[in-house]
């Protein structure tokens, strides 16, 4: 199978591309900046997801697409997020139609269905739109809706929403927690007792490969969205503390009441872009995510995709500690 993978510069999609190549699939990695191919079955293709022409060229001869390229974070204008996440997805759908590609795995995020309250043991709800300040979540929600609407008798589309992916080499969740802990700037919203799902990187990779194999026009997962996680909810406090323990850094977060954190976040997200270019330490959306429970029923994903996580969180923390020891 020849597969176009967008966003392969990330830990997750890079791992997906590597494992697909290892099993014998022919992979085209579509990225803005490319280097020498890491595998004989991987072709590196330079391009911008917003450029329909280069994307269509990269998709020539492909049987399937895993679309993970996106603008992430909270900094940037709505136009920037929309052009990459929404227009980029439209270009993917056009390329799939033009080349008669029959499989599409859209890499989404649980935040597309986030409405501010706790989620405890629920299944994936439909993406919602209308957020005024959460550009990432809003643009990803609009893009997911478009992707799933494109599911048809010719193109099978499935959306995966991996929840808090972490592991060795992760610069997002792990990197930020460890950096802030080292600097004495780690913040805990509320008590830290809210239960949250997370996903060890190996399991997130295998879930996307399982989705690629499972989706097809008319398949049980076609037209559906699934939240992916280890299915082992832990408190925010435990997740952060064990990441710090694995890295060998002191865990002494500053606790901020949830209401105050949301208020601070609202102010910061308005002022920060005027004075800084890096990611702000807090926004209202981040405060809501850290201060409320978020864990999901994994049975639909496991049954429909014929997939189960193989690395437990406890084993993941051991592997993370080993990685930090080796890279120290």
From TrEMBL:
Pfam families: 3Beta_HSD (PF01073). PANTHER family: BIFUNCTIONAL POLYMYXIN RESISTANCE PROTEIN ARNA, SHORT CHAIN DEHYDROGENASE_REDUCTASE FAMILY 42E, MEMBER 2. Keywords: Oxidoreductase. It comes from freshwater metagenome. SUPFAM superfamilies: NAD(P)-binding Rossmann-fold domains (SSF51735). The lineage of its organism: unclassified sequences, metagenomes, ecological metagenomes. This is Unannotated protein. The keyword tRNA-binding does not apply. One of its GO terms (biological process) is steroid biosynthetic process. Belongs to the 3-beta-HSD family. One of its GO terms (molecular function) is oxidoreductase activity, acting on the CH-OH group of donors, NAD or NADP as acceptor. Residues 38-250 form the 3-beta hydroxysteroid dehydrogenase/isomerase domain.
